[in-house]
Write a structure and sequence with these properties.
By secondary structure, the protein is α/β, with parallel strands linked by helices. The chain is 30% helix and 21% strand. The strands form 5 sheets. A 6-stranded mixed sheet has the order 1-2-3-4-5-6, with helices on one face.
């Protein structure tokens, strides 16, 4: 028996390869299916099944392409309604894989079709559960993504999740291994552990949602408390996962076209494409194409692109580090952005050499900012904006700083001064540069980025504080 977790850090996502006696199954594959095909080919195995725990919202799965490549059926649990051919398993339905058995356990709550797959070993003993977004390590799936005002609420979904956990998962033995679809950093839960594999017994001890004496009312309150609005690309990814999508090869062919500076400029003007600059924030700061949005490829690139670019149908033009064009197009496609039109040949350096317009971000070091504080030059008009999450801000922030989280930057535009200089920071510099690029595109040219973010500020004597929690 082979069980391999294939974890993608950018999405905090775990896909799974299972093999027994030359037969293989894939659970929750990513859109690029080559790694799974190569893994099976290396072992001389045949992929017999593609199991989907639910219609994913935070990424486009590889189920449709992988099924086309292998003729393996796609398997969903009850209530799934894909527009393509698939096996809709009954609750408790068994699937043989070599000497192993995989059983579909319907566990609604995160979504109505959410299903946990229980793996039994060759002796018929419960070995592992692949829980999708039903059970995470340290948390459970958020119950608001599938709510519909006219049919079901997040509280009703949370109630279903409470029953699913207690009737289908908690009765299993403590030594059963838990393989979730996501880990820390995913927007599909609130407070997941950094670990990606655990035993069910340990989760019963430390996961708040699995407390033995917890009432349904307590569960609903705790699971729904503090939920932020989901990223706007989530429903669009669900639609693609339910209805199908273009092959990644087609997306890559279109997205990796090279464009000279002149052709790039014409394409931007003619299509209204977003110019997306994915270089390091320090490079973007020193010089970039006017109105280009920065989202660095070496940060949480795909989730931020999904959260901040309003429409997956939006055409995109890329400015990338040399040699990372295909990687960028692939990572955009993982979250449904299939309309990349090409990339700037020779990168930003070629643009500058062609004497095209260039913009930059004004920045200040934390040390120089501190000198202003020490000299008493901080005026009444001096404003600092913190673009970290509210929970980070509450833990510690610069005295008098305003919290304008990057996730919802467009909702905070009215807070930023139109004329007077203002200062921005995040934890280390990545998110504040993203925010600065968005504000610049919207006409705010009076901003200054604080280099190094709060990490650098804390090394100075600038005062910080924590939000006082009211009891």
């Amino acid at each position: 028996m082979i069980i391999e977790q294939i974890y993608t850090g950018c999405l905090s996502q775990g896909a799974y390869y299972i093999e027994s006696n030359g037969e293989a199954a894939i659970i929750d594959p990513l859109r690029e299916v080559k790694p799974y095909l190569e893994r099976a080919h290396k072992n001389g195995a045949t992929i017999n099944y593609i199991f989907e725990t639910h219609f994913h919202a935070d990424f486009v799965s590889g189920h449709v392409t992988l099924s086309k490549e292998t003729d393996a059926p796609i398997v969903y649990g009850p209530n799934a309604n894909p527009t393509f051919d698939a096996i809709i398993a009954a609750d408790g339905q068994e699937f043989r894989l070599g000497e192993l058995t995989i059983i579909a356990l319907h566990t609604p709550g995160h979504t109505m079709e959410s299903t946990t797959f229980l793996l039994k070993d060759k002796n018929g003993r419960d070995h592992a559960i692949f829980t999708g977004d039903t059970l995470f390590l340290g948390d459970v799936g958020r119950p608001d993504l599938a709510q519909k005002a006219d049919t079901i609420t997040q509280e009703e979904l949370a109630g279903l999740l409470f029953k699913s956990l207690r009737e289908k998962i908690m009765p299993l033995a403590n030594d059963v291994v838990v393989y979730p679809a996501h880990g820390a950093g995913s927007a599909c839960g609130k407070n997941m552990m950094k670990e990606t594999v655990d035993t069910l017994g340990n989760q019963k001890e430390m996961n708040y949602a699995l407390r033995e004496n917890m009432t349904e009312e307590e569960f609903i309150k705790e699971v729904t408390d503090g939920l932020l609005a989901p990223p706007q690309y989530f429903p669009l990814n669900v639609k693609m996962n339910r209805e199908g999508y273009a092959d990644l090869d087609e997306v890559l062919k279109r997205g990796t076209r090279t464009l000279s500076p002149g052709a790039f400029e014409r394409a931007a003007n003619e299509t209204g494409a977003v110019i997306l600059d994915v270089r390091h924030q320090d490079e973007y700061e020193k010089g970039h194409i006017p109105n280009a949005i920065f989202i660095g490829i070496d940060g949480s690139f795909a989730p931020w692109a999904g959260a901040l670019i309003a429409d997956v149908q939006q055409p995109i033009l890329l400015v990338t580090p040399p040699g990372r064009e295909e990687e960028t197009v692939t990572r955009l496609a993982r979250v449904g952005f299939d309309h990349t039109l090409g990339y700037l040949e020779g990168g930003f350096e070629r643009w500058a050499e062609a004497s095209k317009p260039v913009d930059k971000i004004d920045s200040i070091s934390a040390e120089n900012l501190n000198k202003w504080y020490e000299k008493g030059e901080k005026t009444v008009d001096f404003e600092v904006f913190d673009v970290r999450k509210e929970t980070e801000y509450d833990t510690e922030h610069v005295l008098d700083a305003k919290n304008t989280p990057l996730d919802f930057i467009n909702e905070h535009l009215s807070l930023f001064p139109q004329k007077s200089i203002f200062y921005m920071h995040c934890a280390s510099g990545y998110r504040s540069m993203v925010a600065a690029s968005i504000l610049k595109k919207r006409g705010y040219h009076n901003l200054v980025n604080i280099e190094g973010g709060l990490q650098a500020i804390k090394k100075t004597s600038i005062s910080t504080t924590a939000t006082v929690q009211q009891s």
